[in-house]
Write a structure and sequence with these properties.
This protein is α/β, with parallel strands linked by helices. It has two domains: 129 residues, P-loop containing nucleotide triphosphate hydrolases (Rossmann fold, 3-Layer(aba) Sandwich), CATH 3.40.50; 281 residues, no CATH class. 42% of the residues lie in helices and 17% in strands. The chain has 18 helices and 16 strands. The strands form four sheets. It has a seven-stranded mixed beta sheet with strand order 7-14-15-13-12-11-10, sandwiched between helices. It has a five-stranded parallel beta sheet with strand order 2-3-4-1-5, sandwiched between helices. Strands 6-16 form a two-stranded parallel ribbon. A hairpin with a 4-residue loop joins strand 11 and strand 12.
Length: 427
């Protein structure tokens, strides 16, 4: 079962492309998202530095005979390379010496503790690949009847598809998350994966990432506050105010910032940048990033929510559903060489996601759990934004899409706006 899902991963094709264009590939992402398994499938030899014995031997080898450590069939995989930062410059030099592509793969679940140990950026020698927990299409929970990439290719395209997900199904998918190991477990056991993930972060990982001892209780409290405020541009001061309600009076903004920075280094938090576009009016665009967890199940675990509780609190379910949609859109955007942004201006006009290709083509996406009233409100919001955009310079959007959770069908409205259940979408 797991092999079937891994064969469908978007990262498989992206890794292959990277190996064909660079001497070394750095694959980064949160723990448990499947980096090692994905990379092992394309590696010809490997050094598993997460194994303490292998790490100890490799550190000695690096001091005595680095060329011997790098020797091996290509591509040679160094898993959790950040445990041995000296590898970075040595591999860069080795790529220069050999000339060519596809020699090394490095995986990392954290930024190195001491970046000063790295002397060169790796530009021209390394390719970078970000992995995330699995999208619904990768986990087999989307029919894939609507392709994000195809929406850029043809104006006037009509979409169609059937969605079988109910509100209960969506709640389960939000709480289960996209962790590969959870797919092989019973529904009850799968829901515990994110709770185990939170435990590992609070008790160990957040302190180990930069060798700074941190209070597990405060980590959990911070993660709960971030969960409540994700999908917004809330500054550190607002997060602190939320935490103060739980009697953490001594926690400074500087300390909170260091905690958030640690979570970013672990790829647990991934901000969405603001979209920069030419407008017809003088509306000021909000430039702050929007903060999201890399997977909705992390927020679920931080808040202590169950699928049953979610279906009784549609407001909370709505913003957690948005997190799941952002995760999937990021995965699908990577597959078509696009980026995901958000838009918000001084008039409080918002767009949940703007998908932009390298050539500047873009599509507008609003996320709604369901309901025609909500869908129509999203439709009108995107049309209002479209009227603000200086299309002489930016061009017309290639598509407008309302991404939904429930609803029986994917369809196109008379004005060209697509309504697509997340259970019908693919790259």
């Amino acid at each position: 079962m797991a092999d079937f899902y891994y064969r469908k991963r978007v990262a498989d094709a992206l890794l292959k492309d990277c190996l064909e264009t660079a001497g070394a590939v750095l694959v980064q992402g949160p723990k448990w998202c499947g980096k090692t398994t994905t990379c092992e499938q394309q590696a010809a030899s490997k050094v598993m530095l997460a194994n303490p014995e292998v790490l100890a031997e490799s550190k000695q080898m690096a001091q005595i005979n680095m060329s011997g450590l790098l020797a091996g069939s290509s591509p040679r995989l160094f898993d959790e390379w950040q445990s041995l930062p000296v590898l970075w410059d040595s591999i860069r030099y080795e790529v220069d010496r050999r000339r060519g592509t596809g020699y090394f793969i490095l995986t990392g679940s954290a930024v190195p503790v001491d970046p000063s140990q790295i002397q060169h950026t790796g530009t021209g020698r390394y390719a970078w690949l970000r992995m995330r927990p699995m999208s619904l299409w990768e986990s087999g929970d989307s029919t894939g009847e609507v392709s994000l990439g195809s929406l850029f290719e043809q104006d006037g395209r009509i979409v169609s598809g059937q969605n079988s997900h109910t509100l209960d199904n969506i709640a389960h998918l939000i709480c289960r998350g996209g962790w590969p190991d959870s797919l092989e477990r019973s529904p009850k056991s799968a829901l515990k994966t994110a709770y185990n993930y939170i435990d590992a972060l609070a008790e160990s990982d957040v302190s180990r990432v930069d060798e700074t001892l941190r209070n597990p209780k405060r980590i959990r409290l911070l993660m709960r506050s971030v969960a409540r405020l994700q999908g917004s541009q809330a500054p550190i001061s607002v997060i602190r105010s939320d935490m103060l309600a739980n009697d953490e009076q001594s926690l400074s903004e500087k300390t909170i910032a260091s905690y958030i920075n640690a979570l970013e280094k672990l790829f647990v938090i991934e901000d969405m940048p603001a979209w920069s576009v030419n407008l017809r009016s003088k509306s000021a665009i909000r430039t702050s990033n929007t903060r999201y967890y890399v997977d909705p199940s992390i927020a679920v675990a931080a808040l202590g929510i169950t699928p049953q509780k979610l279906t009784k609190d549609l407001n909370t379910m709505g913003f957690l559903f948005e997190t799941m949609c952002v995760r999937d859109l990021r995965v699908y955007a990577d597959a078509i060489d696009a980026k995901v942004y958000h838009y918000r201006d001084k008039d409080e006009l918002e767009c949940d996601a703007v998908i932009e290709l390298r050539d500047g083509s873009y599509g507008l996406v609003e996320v709604k759990l369901g309901g025609m009233d909500n869908i129509e409100a999203a439709q009108h919001s995107m049309l209002k934004l479209q009227k603000k955009i200086n299309t002489d310079k930016a061009g017309e959007p290639r598509f407008r899409m309302v991404l939904t959770g429930v609803g029986n069908y994917a369809f196109t409205m008379p004005d060209g706006t697509h309504v697509v259940p997340i259970g019908c979408l693919k790259p």
